[in-house]
Design a protein that fits this description.
alpha+beta, 6-stranded mixed beta sheet, 6-stranded antiparallel beta sheet, 12 helices, 29 strands
Length: about 575
């Protein structure tokens, strides 16, 4: 899921959104939660459903359905269900069979009542090492955390359109005895043990309730954080700048204020961040959000955090406004989001950091194996993490050199306005041409980079001259570098993955930094058993102080999730 984080600034600019929300389900009713017993009970009416007979309804596998009934409460529907982990690991797929038992029937509205019980991990010493994730319904004795991925509410999946309706409008009353506050995504948090939330704008439903405080900092809600006033102001300022940047370039207002939410895992070691618009959530056993801001300088501790934040904030546009699907799901969801966050980095942070990101993309893309050109992708699973986070933004950067940066933004604006597309290669091509890209220009680009495995070496070759132009500052006689390789974490593993890191080394002017970086990636590959097991970063800096500060911040973050090990390289 998401790995990044983002930030923005609203300067009073008023933008008119041309985006029109298509028909989305509406939820109304009551939800009851026991923080002590770990139970969830719901009595809901689901309405405003689209016409389809090719669908399923996702509901968490730990929830027991009492009934599905017609909207007038006259009779109960017959139901069938199955478990399809490739579609949703956390839930069963339900449907109402037709009279022939082969077809499926979906009324325009229905009632559903269900109840379930989930473990309460009140004693932190008894928690497992690993075992928490975004789709978990997590109760720690003080709070409950449940996201759209957990399917704690009925979620329609339209099979014909390959569209999952995680975002809904709602009129819900949440009952949590003993809670001090309740937060439901899309509305401000409320004090008390009972809260009524309504929204005629669709949101994916993240529920957070229990013993916590909240406050508002300018344009950001802070839920359950321990940020100081200064730290909150720094983060809010960056959130606002990045949000304003996206609004200006994509012509769509960011929408409601961002909520920054802090939560603890129901495990010993899990630590991650995720976005459920408009919430940016940190799940950490050590108040990780507080490490983002240096209390001495009153700035972000590491400039890489800006890229991280910009990526997560970008998911509002690619993930909420525009929902990818089909074969290029990951290319759009993560690759395009990473590209627009790269643009924010270039314009808000500076060219030096942008150049470092390009070099990281190049180094990572060199490691891709069994590469397929974009036109050859036949399933989402063929686009692994390196392909989506590193190769796609590099590819779009090369496209930018062919058609110009303004045309790329024009294309992205047209993509966001497209209703219900299948985000396959045909859509990628047609959307570019319809946005104004010259057919011959695209044909040349397609032949060079998109049709076969030769697209990868061709792309890397195109950036060779660029890479040589962004070597360390020629005014300096030397630069500094260090590298880190981190193993990918296996879900439910009992031990931490490892992270290998090097000393800080100096390289003199005239030495081939590209050759050194390639030697490191060859070295790092030997530390891992498979091509996708590890992720490596080769980082360069103009001063020793910059390198030392950056490495310290990297290792501080990694220490919570990985076993650190120093290795000797060169």
């Amino acid at each position: 899921m998401s790995k990044a984080l983002f930030i923005f600034f609203i300067t009073g600019l008023v933008l008119i959104s041309r985006h029109v929300y298509s028909q989305v389900p509406h939820l109304a009713g009551d939800v009851y939660v026991s923080l002590e017993q770990g139970t969830i009970k719901a009595d809901l009416t689901v309405s405003n459903l689209p016409e389809t007979s090719n669908y399923s309804l996702q509901l968490n596998s730990g929830l027991n359905v009492q009934f599905f009934r017609d909207s007038r409460d006259r009779f109960s529907y017959a139901t069938e269900r199955e478990y399809k982990p490739e579609k949703s690991y956390e839930s069963f797929q339900y449907w109402f069979p037709g009279t022939d038992r082969k077809s499926r029937y979906l009324p325009d509205q229905f009632k559903v009542s269900y109840v379930g019980a989930f473990p309460v991990y009140a004693d932190s010493k008894k928690r497992s090492e690993w075992g928490d994730w975004k789709g978990n319904i997590a109760l720690n004795g003080k709070t409950i955390r449940a996201t759209e991925q957990s399917a704690w509410y009925p979620i329609l999946y339209n099979i014909a359109e390959d569209k999952t309706y995680t975002s809904v409008t709602y009129d819900l009353t949440i009952h949590v005895p003993g809670a001090r506050a309740i937060y439901l995504n899309g509305q401000p948090p409320r004090q008390g043990s009972v809260a009524h939330f309504t929204s005629d704008r669709p949101f994916p439903l993240l529920l957070f309730a229990g013993d916590f405080d909240f406050k508002k900092e300018q344009n950001t809600y802070l839920v359950n954080t321990t940020l100081s006033q200064m730290q909150a102001q720094v983060l809010d300022g960056w959130f606002t700048r990045i949000k304003d940047y996206y609004q200006n370039h994509l012509d769509i207002p960011y929408g409601v204020d961002v909520t920054l939410l802090a939560s603890t895992p129901v495990s010993q070691r899990n630590e991650w961040m995720f976005v459920t618009y408009p919430t940016i959530a940190s799940v950490s056993p050590r108040d990780w959000l507080n490490t983002l801001v240096n209390p001495n300088t009153q700035t972000l501790s590491d400039s890489s955090s800006i890229s991280f934040i910009a990526h997560e904030l970008g998911h509002y546009y690619v993930g909420t406004v525009f929902q990818p699907n089909s074969t290029l799901y990951w290319a759009f969801l993560e690759g395009v989001t990473e590209y627009i966050s790269l643009q924010a980095v270039r314009d808000l942070v500076g060219k030096n950091y942008y150049d470092r990101k390009i070099k990281q993309y190049m180094a990572a893309s060199r490691k891709l194996q069994n590469f397929k050109g974009l036109s050859e992708i036949t399933s989402p699973g063929e686009i692994n993490e390196t392909y989506r986070y590193q190769y796609i933004p590099l590819l779009l950067t090369e496209l930018e050199t062919k058609i110009g940066r303004p045309q790329v933004w024009k294309w992205l604006r047209s993509v966001l306005q497209t209703e219900k597309p299948l985000t396959n290669y045909a859509f990628f091509k047609e959307s570019l041409l319809q946005s104004g890209v010259d057919e011959r220009t695209f044909a040349d680009f397609e032949r060079e980079y998109l049709r076969s495995s030769a697209g990868l070496p061709n792309l890397l070759a195109a950036f060779q001259s660029y890479e040589s132009s962004i070597q360390p500052n020629s005014a300096s006689n030397h630069a500094y570098y260090w590298a880190v390789t981190r193993q990918q974490h296996t879900p439910h593993a009992e031990t931490k993955p490892q992270a290998f890191y090097t000393d800080i080394k100096r390289i003199n002017a005239g030495e081939d930094l590209k050759k050194v970086s390639q030697q490191y990636f060859d070295f790092a590959r030997g530390q891992c058993s498979g091509p996708d097991e590890c992720f490596s970063d080769f980082n360069t800096y103009e001063t020793l102080e910059q390198a030392q500060e950056a490495r310290k911040n990297w290792l501080n973050r990694l220490s919570a999730t990985h076993e650190l090990k120093a290795v000797h390289f060169k």
